[in-house]
Sequence to fold (326 residues):
Amino acid sequence: MKRHLISAADLSRDDAVLILDTAEELARLADRPIKKLPTLRGRTVVNLFFEDSTRTRISFEAAAKRLSADVINFSAKGSSVSKGESLKDTALTLEAMGADAVVIRHHASGAPHRLATSGWIKGAVVNAGDGTHEHPTQALLDAFTVRRHLRPEASGVGQDLAGRRITIVGDILHSRVARSNVHLLSTLGAEVTLVAPPTLVPFGVESWPCEVSYDLDTVVGKTDAVMMLRVQRERMNAAFFPTEREYARRYGLDGDRMSRMPEHAIVMHPGPMNRGMEITAEVADSDRCTAVEQVANGVSIRMAVLYLLLGGNESAVAAARTEESK
Fold:
């Protein structure tokens, strides 16, 4: 693996499978009475969040703590950032504190890349979401979830998603989750189709490794997983569709559309959900919806990413057993 995780496009097929396999191994910790490993003892992980977050921030914090790392949570609100401090000065402060890894979420696309290439920080940088650009660990946990359901033998260890058909539906234009998933899922061999109103399809999408459709009904019957995206009103400065009702009618997933999916197919959502808009309560609460499972899988994936970036070159659990036996 590279030194940083900025984009899902930076991951080779082998890198991605290594992360998924490591996460599979670490996921077994959830069944243990004590869910901690000493593998990152003495390391410091900083969660640097310039945007509000619940799932991602808590997931990274839980992941670092389960690996016995020291965790510093830094929120822009109430900090020197709110007084005008620059990203550079904030980074230099963190470097002075001895950060081994910085997990950054920022409203500006490209901020994690700037942090990683500036030389301000010597440790690893992990992109936890930047503007409308990317969110690579979300794509990894989504791939992990898909593989567990569609490659159930030994939880798919060592396998990719070759030949699987994944449909991503909704606000593609503003979705960093969609961008990362298109890159990662295609790297893993999946066939990805984007479904959205024409106004919510990004310019230049024809260069992405995926197909594009404007009709959900023609796609839903031949997919292995449907990923519904939240309509991101906070990033919209214009009317991208006539009404919420019209959007739900054409691009929302309800019980009728779900019944037309193949029997083995799953429904995914990165959260938070707009129930009644992109997904109905009936679908969200069904046993085919993996939204809650994705949150749990996120901890395992982020544990794997932190472990591998901070020097892990062998089985995380095996390394822990070696250390514990000393």
User: Anything to note?
Assistant: Residues 267 and 286 are 9 Å apart (CA to CA). Residues 8-134+294-324 form a domain with the Rossmann fold fold (CATH 3.40.50.1370). The chain has two domains: 8-134+294-324, 136-290. Strands lie at 44-49, 70-75, 101-106, 124-130, 165-169, 191-195, 211-213, 225-228, 266-268.
